Structure formats: C-alpha cells, structure tokens
Protein 1
Amino acid sequence: MARVVVATAFGGPEVLSVVEEEIPAPGPGEVRISVRAAGINPVDWKLYSGSMGTAAALPMRLGFEAAGVVVGVGAEAIGPAGSVSVGDQVIAFRIAGGYAEEIVVPASTVVPKPATMGWEPAGGLMLAGATAVHALTATGVSSGETVLVHGAAGGVGLMVVQAAVARGARVIGTASISNHPYLRELGTEPTTYGDGLADRVRALAPDGVDAAIDCVGTNEAVDVSLELVADRDRIVSIAAFPYGSEVGIKMIGGGPGADPGTDVRNAARLQLTELVAQGQLEVRARSFALDDVAAAHREGQAGHVSGKLVLVPHASA
Ligand SMILES: NC(=O)c1ccc[n+]([C@@H]2O[C@H](COP(=O)([O-])OP(=O)(O)OC[C@H]3O[C@@H](n4cnc5c(N)ncnc54)[C@H](OP(=O)(O)O)[C@@H]3O)[C@@H](O)[C@H]2O)c1
C-alpha cells in the first residue's frame, strides 16, 4: 500500500485527500518508483476544478511528473536513455498520478536524474521545462535574437528564460519587482507588467523584438506581443485560451486547438537533463508534505509562485 493524493469531487483544494492505495507490481515495460518529489502544476487544480469539464472519473489521481528511486522493474524496462534498473535515480514524465509515495509508470517515461540535481528541483523540472523547449522551438528563437517573455519568473517562465539564454538569445522578461534580482542573475533583463509595458520594452530594445512567449495568458501579454512582434508565427502563448487563437498567434499545449507538440516535449526530457548537467538550467523549488497538498495548491492558485512547488511524500527526502 502507498499513500496517494486524490480529488474526491470537483471543486477547490478542499476536495483533495490522501488515501492508501494498492500499488501493483510493474508489468512488462513498466517500472515502480519510490517518489522523492512530485511536481505541482496549474493544470493539476484546473483538472479537478471543473474548468476543463467534469467528465473525468472520480476519485482522480493527480500529478504529471515525479522524481524518485526505481524500486522494481518489469521485463524490458527501457527508457529514452536505455535500460532502467532497480536503484536508478530517475525523473518520470509524462505520467499520471505522480502525487504518491510510490508509482508504477511506463519505462518509456523515465530518464536519469542528473547526479548534481536535488530531488525537489528534479520533481519540478519536466512539465514546465518541456513546455519551455516547445515554446522556444515554436518561435524559432536563436542566438543573437531578442525575445520577450511574459511571466518570466513563473514555473514555465524561468525555464524559458534560462533555455533562451542558453541558446544565446537576449531575453526581456516581465515579472513583479521582487523577482527582478533573480531574473537578472539568470541573464534576463526584467521589467514590470501592467500599463506602459510596450513602451518599457521598446526602451529596452529600441531595435525591436524578434519573438514573444506568453507564459501568463493575459490579454495584455498577447496585445503587447502583437504590438512589438511583426510576425504572428513568432508569438506563442501557453495560456491565452481562446484569445490567442482568435488573433492568430501560436497556441501550444493541451488547450483547445493548441499544438500538443508531443514529439518535441518527449525529446525535450533528455535536452533538459543535459542543460541541468551543464549548469545552464536550475530549478528553484519549494516543497510541501503530501498532507499539505491543499495548502500548496492554494498558494499556487494565488498566481505569484516564483519557480516550482513540489510535494515530498517521504519525510526523509
Ligand atoms: N500550454 C501548456 O503546455 C502549459 C504548460 C504549463 C503551464 N501552462 C499554463 O501556463 C500558465 C502559467 O503556468 P506556470 O506553471 O508557469 O504558473 P506559475 O508558476 O503559477 O507562474 C505564474 C506567473 O504569472 C505571473 N503573473 C501573475 N499575474 C500576472 C499578470 N497579470 N501579468 C504578467 N504576469 C503575471 C507571476 O509573476 P509575478 O509573481 O512575477 O507577478 C507568476 O510568476 C498557467 O495558466 C498554466 O496552466 C500551460
């Protein structure tokens, strides 16, 4: 038996509980992982809030990513980086039900955790990181170009700015003033969002902005991007549903009409661990115990998390 988080109804974080569930032995092509950290993402609460529909079966397991130690393998447990063995320290993405002490997942979702990376950052690396790689691929950001990133200090935003800097791009990022020092440390030029944003960006980049990545979904982020970037194919949003589609910018991810980018995101897993191993990508993570999942979600829903929130199911992790 293992402790797992479930949503028992559609609603707010009060519908979350921790229950005991039987975890099956891994079958062919599967691995069993003792979870050390599970990443929290806004989609997790969107799923049980009912805002994405109420057709999903209840109780609903949550969590699309987790990092941990392999404690069992089925036959032919082969992941993107090769065979998976008991004792391996790994990250699993994209999975279902990561909020748990133990999980059984397809070996195809499992990549080695970089040795230098702690469990908590590893638990929050993949969903935001793969989204960031997809956003940079969709906008074709390359060395020497200037990219505007809206919501630069959020979970996805921080991955976008670091991956863009690693590509040699100049990055201007919007964030609350308290996040500006950290963005500067990462090589990003920060500015505040809100009235006058387009003028502030023009002052920073008088020669123009080549591409824009919206990690927030506000009309302001879309409108300022349209004002500053001539080519709509070089503006991408991960959250401006449905406005972004209406104005003809690129929408990516799981929303209606968006490009899921499954191949790009799957390939991104090993690119992300490589960036981490090379010291070009770090994850700022803050952890909560499994029993505090509702508090973690309330904090995430307030919309000003800098970096990632993760759940740590074992007290010693
Ligand atoms: N399409 C996809 O594949 C995909 C993937 C992941 C996430 N998403 C979606 O993308 C959104 C962001 O996800 P996340 O995980 O990065 O969230 P997050 O970690 O909660 O970050 C949200 C960020 O938004 C910023 N923010 C809040 N209000 C703002 C405003 N009015 N203008 C500009 N920025 C503002 C905050 O910045 P400050 O704290 O600096 O104010 C915060 O850093 C969510 O809606 C999520 O569901 C989509």
Note: Residues 41-43, 128, 131, 150-151, 153-157, 174-176, 179, 193, 215-218, 238-239, 252-253, 300, 303-306 surround NAP (CB under 6 Å).
Protein 2
Amino acid sequence: MSASTLRAAGMVTLVVAALLGSAYALGRSLVPDHPDRGAGVAASIHTPHYGDQPPSTEFPGPPGGGYGGPSPDASPSASDDARQPDDSEGPYGARTSTGSTRIALTFDDGPDPQWTPQVLALLKEYGVKATFCIVGENAESHPDLVRSIVADGHTICNHSWNHDISLGKRSPAAIRDDLLRTNDAIRAAAPDARIAYFRQPGGAWTYQVVSTCEDLGMTPLHWAVDPTDWQVPGAAKITQTVLAETRPGSIVLMHDAGGDRSGTVEALQRLLPELMHRFQLEALPTGTT
Ligand SMILES: [Zn+2]
C-alpha cells in the first residue's frame, strides 16, 4: 500500500473509533446512576455531625479541578520527588501547601469541649503549633477553648458559622454575613485573634466564596492530605494515611470536633513524634509574625 493509502486507512480507523466511543458514551449516559452514589454525602449534610467530606456533584468545581480526595501530589507515588515542596493549588486557587518544605496540621469543626483540650495538650507536649478551623457557633458556645487555642500560639481559621456545606451557593451578601458573624464570635472570645484563613466546609469551594473570603482579608485554605478521620476509620488507618501521603509542604486535614475523635487523638500520639522526625511542622503564618 502507498503512504497515502495507509494515511487514509488510518483516518477511517480513527473515525470509526470515535463513533464507537460516542455510542458507548451515549449508552453510558442512558444508564441511571447507581442509587447509592453520593448517598453518604447527602445523608451526612443533614446529620448533626460535621464532616469535611467531598461535596456532592452539586458542586462541579472549576474546570479540571477536584475536591477533597487526595490530590495527585498527595499520592504515595509522588514520593519520588519528595524533596520538592508541594506548591499545588486546590479548587479555585485555595491553598493546599505551606509554600515551604514545612508541613501544617489543621484541625476542623471545633472547638469541642471533649476533644479540643486533648488535641491542645498533645500539641503542647510536643511543642507543635497548628491551625484550627473554627465553626462560629462552637466559638460562641466555647469561648474559653478559643482563648486556649489562641493563647497556645496556634493559627485561627474561619470555618463558617454552622458548617454550611452549601455556603458557596448562597448570595454574596449571605456569604459575607456568615463569615463576618463567625469572625465576630471568634473575636468576642479572643479579641486579639488574627483570622488569616477561611476554609469552606466540605471543601465545597465556589468562585463566590473564595472571592468573598479574599475580600475580607482571609486566604482560602484547602488541604493536600485527608485521612478522612471524620469517617472514624480508626487510629491505625488515620496514622497510616497521613504518614503515607504527607510530603514537604503538605497541609494535613484532621478534626477535633464533629463526632467521636478518639481515633484522631490516638493517631496524633504516634503521628506527632513521627512527623517531627521527618518534617518541620508549623502553624500557618498569619502575617503578624
Ligand atoms: Zn469542617
């Protein structure tokens, strides 16, 4: 066969392949979604326990973006270039990295009178500073714990008034009011608190919520490592995931409230010395130090 015949045959093959692919996609789209798909997310929104699970498909996210789950940079296979800091960005540019080789532990959904003091005691025992993403109504209920967090030198992050996973879909004014109300509750407890970060509940970022938090002077804070401790997988699994996925620059997501956090506390007892052996740990910078 001549070269031109070969090219023509190649084109026909490509066209046929494309048509077959379209037919397959069409067939797939006609099959109803599995009924269980996303049910866990939908159910958890309506339970009293908070959780930073990836949101449902109601939040499609930015083009090419993903939510929640381990980012490609956080996967164990990324350990090949483990000496490079992770400087990737999360949804809508939210931070997933410290921007240096240091790592940052972040604790969400508190403060909680049972678990937050245990986390604070462990951090103090090991001399580690971390970041606490505080829910406004919990700050209002437990101002003493907000004061303890600030007094211990940890960084404060706004985590919305009542952990509204749909916050990003509300009006700009409603988002602004929610974030300001939360900051007010934190400052009512600790007037000198510098609130440099905001973390959208569930990681359900939208352009509007990022824009509003930046207008209010807060940096949108996502994460790179998520051991899904809110799903109570047990201390061993939490420990294993964090140790496997944390690399220089990682921001690690954990929870000091929103349910039974005994697994998280137990995991920290092993994680803190091990992470300190491997990395420098920091509270995210607030611009004042
Ligand atoms: Zn949360």
Note: Confidence is low (pLDDT under 50) at residues 12-48, 54-83.
Protein 3
Amino acid sequence: MATVFETQIPSLLGVRARVADALPISRVDFAEFSRDLLRSFRWLHQQHGPIAAIEDGGQRVVFLFSPEYNQQVLSDTERFHARFFTIRGPKRSAQRRVTCGLLSMNGDQHRRNRRIVKEPFGLRAISTYADTVVRLTDEMLDNWRPGDERDIAEEMRHYMLGVTSTLLFGMDDPVAACRLGDMIANWVTLNHEVGVGALVPNDKFLDGYEELLGYAEVLEAEVLAMIRRRRESATHGNDVLSILVRSNDADGGLTDEELVGQAAVLFSAAHLTTAHSLTWTLFLLAQHPEIMEQLWVELNSEDSAGGRPKSLGSMPKGEELTLLDRVIKESMRVLPASAYSQRMATESVRLGPLELSRGTGIVFSPLIVHHLASLYPEPERFLPDRWINLRPSPYAYHPFGAGPRLCIGAPLAMSIIRVALQRILTRYRLSVVPGSDIGAHVESTMLFPTNGMPMRIHSADGRYARSPVVGNIHELVDLGKKPEVSSYESAKVDDAVPVQRKPR
Ligand code: HEM
C-alpha cells in the first residue's frame, strides 16, 4: 500500500521524472524540493535508499543516508570540503569576512584555526563557565510562575541568547555581549532568508542581498570594536573571545579577520542548536510521564543534590550513563537539532553507483540515519534505555557531526543542557498545552519547532501526564495514539490522568 509520502510528495516536489531506473536520481524543482525539506528528505530516502541525488537544470545534489557513505565522505577532508553559508558576498566584502569561520575553512587553514579555536572548549575551561550557566538558568526560572503558559521554544531561544552571548563575549559586560549576540542572531536569520531566495532570484532577493551586505558591515565593526577592547584591557577575561584574542601559536595567533569569522560562526553554531535541543528534550519528557517520573527520582537523589550534573563535558558510555544522559542522547537521536550538513566534492569522485563531478554538493542527515530501523529498532519510539547497550558507530549516530570536523562545542553544549534540565525539572513540572499543534520543520540546516512549544508551568508536584497534541511531530515520534480532534479540542491539562503523585 502506498504511504502518504509516496502518493502525495512527487507532485508536491515538482518531480518530473526518474533520470534512469538504474541510477538513484530524481529530477525535481529545487525550489519546490526546498519548501519542505523534512518531507523531501524522507521521500528521497524512501525512493532510493542509502544514496540518492536530485537534479534540476544540470545541477546535482547528492544525499547520503547510511553510516557507510557518511564515513566515506566525512572522514575525507581533502576530497570533500565543508561549505556552510550560501551567500558569501563579494571577495573583499564584510559578508565574506564574517562568513569565513571554521565551518567555511578547509585544509591547513582549517586544521590550524580548529586547533586554536578548540582551546576554550576543553573540560578545564568548561568547568569555569558552570557558575555562569547556573546563574543564568536560575534567572530565567525566577520569572516563571506555576500556572503560567509559556512558549518554551521562545524561552529556550532567549535563554541561550543570554548564555551564548555571555560565555562567548563577556561576563563583565553582559549588555554589550547580548547586543552583539542579538546582532549575530539577526544576521543568521537574514542569511537564511536571502539564501532561500537565491534559488529563484528576483527583486526581493536583490533587496535582501543588499541588506545582508550592509548588515555584515555593521556586525563586523561591532566585533572588531569588542576585539579592540579586549586587546586594550588590562584584565584577563575568561570569555571565549578573550581567550582567542590571547591565543598564540607558532604562527602568531588569530588575525582580527579570522577572529571576526570565528566569533560569528561560534555564536551561530551554538545558539539555536542548543536551544532547540533543550526544547525537544523538554517536549519529549513532558510526553513520556513514565520516563519523567524516573528522571525526577534521579535528579532529586543525593548524587544530584545541589543542582549540578555529576559529569561535565561529553557523554560517558553504556552503563555509566545516568538516566539524564540517556534521555539527552535519545532526544538528540529522535529529534536532532542539526538536521543536515553539507560538503562539496573538490574533484571528480565515485560514490557507490554515482559519479560526482567537481563542485557537486553532498548532504548528510542525522535526521534520516537516526531513524533507520536497521540501526535503531522501533526508531520512532523515545526509549532512553536503548543506550545502556547500544554502541553505534560515530557515523550512525552523529548529532554533533563526525570525523575531523566533529563539533568542537559538543562538551559545552552537553554541560549547558544537563545543567538547564536539572534545574528546570527539579523546580517545576512542565506539560504541553493540550490540543497544541506541534510541528517540526527543517530551516537553515536545523530542526525547528514550527509553532513554538506551548507549555504550562506547574509546581514540582510529580503529576506527570501526557497531553494530546496534533501536528507533524507524530511522523517523527511515536507518542501513542493520535487523538481525534474533537476529543482534545476542549481538554484541559489537568483533566489528563497523572501517572503518579510524587511527594517531595
Ligand atoms: C546541541 C548543540 C549543538 C549541536 C547539535 C551541534 C551540531 C554540530 C554539527 C552537526 C557540526 C558538524 C557540522 C559539519 O560537519 O558540517 C558542528 C560543528 C561545529 N560546532 Fe556545533 N553543535 C552544537 C553546539 C555547539 C556549541 C555550543 C558550539 C560552540 C560554542 C559549537 C561550535 C561548532 C563549531 C565551531 C563547529 C565547526 C567545527 C569544524 O568545522 O571544525 N557547536 N556542530
């Protein structure tokens, strides 16, 4: 029987024809294909399996949907270069300089910059950020009141704006740090809007393009002013930018131009990825009361008292994982904040049945690979305990990428997520507003919550209960029976039967 995807998507995507039955290639309209990338990726995988390509007007993009192909491409940084920003701007423009951070670098320049930029993300440095993360988390929670209804996606976005700005750009002047963070966040949005328009350039695209180039100039001036203040300051700041400004290697440290690019890319890479990971995890926990109940016990145990996670940095393995760690790992499997990344072939190369010419774009997607039933039985179910025995290859589980370009901020992101979840979940109970339309879509390489995440805040009374919700989230996560519209439209959160009342 044909699935919804098989029957509806070809017309939605503007698919014209299969190029040749023997090859896993579909001719599509790129603009149509990009309109709903989540659906398009899933459709393409269903059509062709582990490797697929789309073609439009002589241009080809290849998609990898298996650990084996991932490994072939991600481990080979010579033949496959990274590319991140769609709009690089003219050669000597501010846009070109602001987009020249790690994610756009390759070869020796990438290796050298990565070695230097990694330094402020080591375990020792991360432990010095812990107090700041705790303080900023508590400031957010002090504003929440039982009975509030809040868009948790927006709360997490705002919270991470504060955390990222402060850790990257300064604990001593949070106002200047947040202003710069805000500017980079706006610039990232503008890049996305203009980047999408680039598929079908028109007057609107040209206006947006000019605006982007102008904004990049203002942003660059702001970062340079901050770098200058760091260089002139007698005190030794602990923020990432200060550490990078002081950095020195055999070649004399990072130039101001390199620092501008790294500051912009670090903020862009850290802000929304971590915010979305938090949002998705809070959603999954609220919708799995049995797991939330066990987690509550762990978070309130003596080991966890004090509201600090036991371990900082990356994940330990297997049985050493706490339930909190298993929850985060499983959440990043089911709903990975980074939905896809890209590479570009630097020479002609054969990948499986496909011959790639120089310059061909290649996409790899944890969103698809993390849902392969051959790797993860019952892939749509949120089962944190699967991680007690599961040891997938780094190319089969890659929420932070894999190989020589593995995310340098992963240990920091994990520490922030652990601290935030621990403090949120011991202080409040969160439930999804019943009847909410919970959607996910892919935008700027990330998996965004489409309509925010409407949640109610309760005191930590242990009355965990799943809420009926609608939306395309049901295509990604098995949340039990999908409710009929009429039965939940008028439901109230406290009408739901709580799993158990837990005494504090
Ligand atoms: C949950 C949060 C995060 C997720 C899901 C995430 C995901 C990723 C992924 C998938 C990549 C690989 C991209 C590729 O191969 O093309 C990556 C790279 C990177 N990430 Fe993260 N990231 C997160 C947090 C952070 C944080 C907190 C920082 C720094 C403050 C950061 C900085 C970077 C940088 C600089 C790279 C580029 C590394 C390179 O090219 O050598 N990320 N991240």
Note: The pocket of protoporphyrin IX containing FE is lined by residues 82, 102-103, 114, 265-266, 269-270, 273-274, 277, 337-338, 341, 399-401, 405, 407-409, 412-413 (CB under 6 Å).
